[in-house]
Design goal:
The complex is a heterodimer of chains A (531) and B (305).
Chain A (H helix, E strand, L loop, with lengths): L4 H23 L5 H6 L4 E2 L1 H4 L1 E8 L1 H22 L6 E5 L3 E6 L4 H12 L3 E9 L2 E8 L1 H26 L5 E5 L3 E7 L4 H9 L4 E5 L6 H5 L7 E9 L6 E9 L4 E2 L3 E7 L7 E7 L1 H13 L5 E5 L2 E4 L11 E8 L1 H13 L6 E9 L1 H54 L3 E2 L1 H30 L4 H33 L2 H34 L9
Parallel strand pairs in A: 1-19, 10-16
Antiparallel strand pairs in A: 2-8, 2-18, 3-4, 4-6, 5-6, 7-8, 9-12, 9-15, 10-11, 13-14, 14-17, 15-16
Chain B lengths: L15 H24 L6 H4 L1 E8 L5 H10 L6 E5 L4 E7 L10 H11 L5 E9 L1 H29 L2 H25 L5 H30 L6 H11 L1 H21 L5 H30 L9
Antiparallel strand pairs in B: 1-3, 1-4, 2-3
Helix pairs in contact in B: 1-6, 1-10, 5-6, 5-7, 6-7, 6-10, 7-8, 7-10, 8-10, 9-10
Classes of the chains: A alpha+beta (531), B alpha+beta (305).
């Protein structure tokens, strides 16, 4: 340890001043902005300020299957165009499909056409039988890999967009591993809405209603090959009762939500409810213009995530690139719908596999309880030390105060997150902090009992206890660091405050207390020590 | 000078057989408890077992039976309900079932309660939903954390003292961890992620205690203060006894403050720490030292360091 007393005191004073400058903005809001913005702050964990933690599993296989089905649709449309009769269609595992053609050169012509049109597909000729031949198309591995990566990366991006528009301060949205997304929304008030906003796939599709098919037959299972049954949900504004009406619609989407430029909430249409108006980008507007022109007097279903919102009859060709989604929306629902349409759909559906939601009131209770326990625990320890070790105990108590001060400012510097277990960690660190001084003081007592001088006893006490103090700190640090590595959320907070506390304790318990005794011994050796 | 114990000369080694008996009981409890955890039969928290827990605060007193039958009607017959006295707080726990597809039920349950209990409004204080896969992963992580810390500690102590010291200290530490698992299992108290945290904390604490005693043993061997190893251990334990008592007492006070004033969320955690400190202080004196004698014999070979 250093010899110079002034050097050590200067170091302690500088550290204390720095700590105070760092900590004040964390404790009170009434500081100048220039000061506040320049120092790091202790973050409060979700368990202390309330909020939502979501872990989502991205269903990548579904994204791959969806893409493959889209290719299949396009491929069949192309075959129709080129007069290549498709007899049967079948899904093949791992993002592939097969088409069967009648005998003749249809299959080989189809193969070369598909190869040319879809460079991202591997197209091969399948078995040739007397009654026809098949063509098998599979997405290339690079394409599948791209979907995989995109599903998570684009998913994170989309969710971030939605949350930013919803308005949450400091959200954290990160990819985890290959197929997980972790979303943390501290301080969010309307928690249920936030969860729904994050988890919605929000795939918007415009599909023609299949007027030729009968709903009764379809519900019995006789659905035309190119159609599907979807339900329209509607809520009666008076009774609040929800009803589901089945409808048969064409499988093929004429237009999807990725062509939407903006989406806005509007109020005050004839029904008096909220509705969402959309405007398409140039490509979307062109398609919408063609689709409406070709299908006047037919019904167009507006489908979001396989639920029909409305299915209005197309009265006339719509060229302006504008459309409206009406339904029985509350203003919040309409606003959330507009957000997800603007932010775009998730490339793959997600499933919530972990949801931790803490109400704001519980968070405040936790802070209050935690701080109360910390203060009471601290006072008990401080009181006991002063009682048991008298003057030396007071010195240790002073070191304890420095320990807490440095610990908090250390957490601020590292921008660490304070969680409820983190507060427990601080309380525990307080209890253990005095242990180093207990070890030293007991040693000094032994030396005094052996009739050594006060000054020699103090020096010998610190010397002999030094290594064991280091050992105890290192072993505690080992477990704390491992906790940090393996822990999640709140547990990490515990590990952080415990390890910073232990590390700082090494300095405060050894240096801060020793300098007091050295100072007292400097002019003339102490004759008695109250310990 | 105030002293808790004056010049202690207790013969700890002479009662080591009784101590071994107590430890054996604790260990058996712990092993049974651990097996039950892995069989899924222990009272595991939602965060380790998977499932849903919902805490709501009502404005008026709650009719538990009504809530129970409402939940049963929605297919959650085996939900556990727990009320906090005088606070109108209700804790609903729904366990995940192995093999059943993961699905989130918190939202429908909250909706159901809002709909069916319209004259007793409530706020949702917390929701915690964890799919079985995540629960499984957390359990695995916890096991790894325990295993790796044991290894790291053995290595460190083998380097600072000697291999046998390291292993003995690790055994004494695991003794405490098993004892805590066993005691919690026997008392039927829920074991959650915070409990795992308490286990590791106590592991660190108990290890500190052991290291202090080992350090003194090494010193006393070097100084040749006694002729046999067990006498040396006895002397060393007595030498550091007042430090052990004072430290245990200060940590104990801090943890008691947490237990009594830290609020409901931290109660089980604080209880685990309280039990752990008692067990940890016991094991450093009665398990670590005697084990060392059993393994190392009475030879007074010097310890490096």
């Amino acid at each position: 340890m250093w010899k110079s007393i002034t050097g050590r005191i200067t170091l302690i004073v500088v550290l204390t001043a720095a700590s105070i400058i760092i900590l004040v903005p964390s404790l009170t809001d009434r500081v100048p902005a220039g000061w506040k913005d320049r120092v790091p702050k202790i973050n409060l964990g979700l368990d202390l300020q309330g909020g939502v933690f979501l872990r989502l599993a991205v269903e990548i296989d579904k994204a791959i299957e969806n893409t493959s089905l889209r290719y299949a649709d396009d491929a069949r449309a192309l075959c129709r165009e080129k007069a290549l009769p498709v007899l049967a269609f079948q899904k093949v595992g791992d993002g592939g499909f097969s088409l069967r053609f009648p005998p003749g050169d249809f299959a080989s012509r189809a193969q070369s056409t598909l190869k040319e049109e879809f460079p991202s597909l591997d197209v091969s000729l399948g078995e040739v039988k007397a009654d026809g031949a098949t063509v098998v198309a599979r997405m290339k591995p690079a394409e599948i890999q791209a979907i995989r990566t995109n599903a998570v990366v684009q998913g994170v991006e989309t969710i971030r967009n939605r949350i930013d528009q919803f308005g949450v301060r400091e959200p954290q949205i990160i990819a985890e591993g290959e197929d997980r997304i972790v979303v943390q929304l501290p301080g969010v008030k309307d928690q249920q809405r936030a969860i729904e906003l994050v988890g919605k796939t929000a795939l918007l599709e415009f599909k023609l209603v299949d007027e030729g098919a009968s709903v009764e037959e379809a519900l019995k299972g006789n659905v035309p090959e190119d159609a599907q049954v979807l339900y329209q949900k509607s809520v009666d504004p008076q009774s609040g009762r929800a009803t589901k009406t089945p409808m048969v619609v064409k499988k093929r989407a004429l237009l999807t939500g990725d062509t939407i430029k903006t989406a806005k909430v509007n109020f005050g249409n004839q029904a008096g409810g909220a509705h969402v108006s959309l405007s398409f980008d140039t490509r979307g507007a062109k398609v919408f213009d063609r689709v409406t022109a070709e299908n006047v007097k037919r019904r167009l279903a507006i489908v979001l995530d396989d639920t029909i919102y409305s299915a209005p009859v197309i009265q006339e060709r719509i060229s302006g690139g504008e459309a409206q989604i009406t339904g029985s929306f509350t203003p919040e629902e309409a606003s959330d719908l507009a957000i997800v349409l603007r932010a775009g759909s998730l490339p793959a559906p997600v499933k919530v596999i972990q949801n931790v939601t803490i109400g704001p009131s519980l968070g405040q209770d936790s802070i209050r309880n935690g701080i109360r326990a910390a203060i009471i625990g601290g006072l008990l320890v401080v009181g006991f030390m002063a009682f048991y070790y008298r003057f030396a105990g007071l010195v240790a108590d002073g070191a304890l105060l420095f320990n807490i001060l440095f610990l908090l400012s250390g957490m601020a510097v590292l921008s660490a997150t304070l969680t409820l277990p983190g507060i427990a960690g601080i309380i525990l660190a307080i209890g253990m902090a005095v242990d180093s001084n207990v070890l030293i003081f007991e040693r000094i007592r032994e030396e005094l009992r052996a009739k050594k001088s006060v000054r020699a006893s103090i020096d010998a006490g610190y010397d002999k206890a030094f290594m064991v103090v280091v050992d105890t700190h290192v072993t505690t640090l080992i477990t704390a660091v491992i906790l940090f590595q393996f822990g999640t959320g709140p547990i990490k907070g515990f590990a952080v405050s415990l390890s910073i506390g232990v590390a700082i304790n090494l300095f405060t318990a050894l240096v801060c207390t020793k300098v007091v005794f050295d100072y007292l011994n400097a002019k003339k050796p102490m004759q008695a020590l109250s310990i | 000078m105030i002293e808790l114990v004056k010049n202690p000369k207790y013969d700890f080694m002479s009662i080591r057989n009784y101590a071994f008996m107590i430890s054996a009981v604790l260990l058996i409890l712990g092993i049974v408890g651990t097996i039950q955890i892995f069989r899924g039969k222990a009272n595991l928290g939602i965060d380790l077992a998977g499932g849903t827990s919902i805490q709501v605060k009502f404005q008026k007193p709650i009719a538990m039976d009504q809530v129970r039958s409402l939940l049963a009607g929605a297919g959650h017959g085996e939900a556990t309900l727990q009320g906090a006295e005088g606070e109108n707080i209700l804790l609903i726990k729904l366990r995940a079932h192995a093999g059943v597809e993961e699905r989130m039920v918190a939202e429908p349950v909250v909706k159901l309660l809002r709909e069916k209990l319209p004259d007793n409004p409530f706020v949702v204080e917390s929701i915690s939903e964890i799919g079985p896969a995540i629960g499984h992963k957390l359990r695995q992580d916890a096991t790894w954390a325990l295993a790796i810390s044991a290894l790291a500690i053995i290595i460190y102590l083998a380097w600072r003292f000697e291999f046998k010291f390291g292993v003995t200290a690790a055994i004494a530490t695991f003794h405490d961890i098993f004892a805590m698992v066993g005691i919690f299992w026997a008392l039927g108290i829920e074991q959650d992620l915070l409990f795992i945290t308490a286990l590791l904390t106590i592991g660190g604490y108990s290890l500190t205690d052991t290291v202090v005693i080992f350090d003194r043993i090494r010193e006393n061997i070097r100084l040749r203060k006694r002729n046999t190893f067990s006498e040396t251990i006895n002397l060393s334990v007595n030498d550091v006894l007042s430090r052990s008592l004072v430290t245990s007492f200060t940590v104990f006070m801090a943890v008691m403050a947490l237990l009594l004033f830290g609020g409901a969320v931290l109660r089980n955690f604080a209880l685990a720490l309280t039990i752990g400190i008692l067990v940890g202080s016991y094991s450093s004196v009665f398990v670590a030292g005697p084990m060392l004698v059993l393994w190392r014999g009475e030879k007074m070979t010097a310890v490096k360091g």
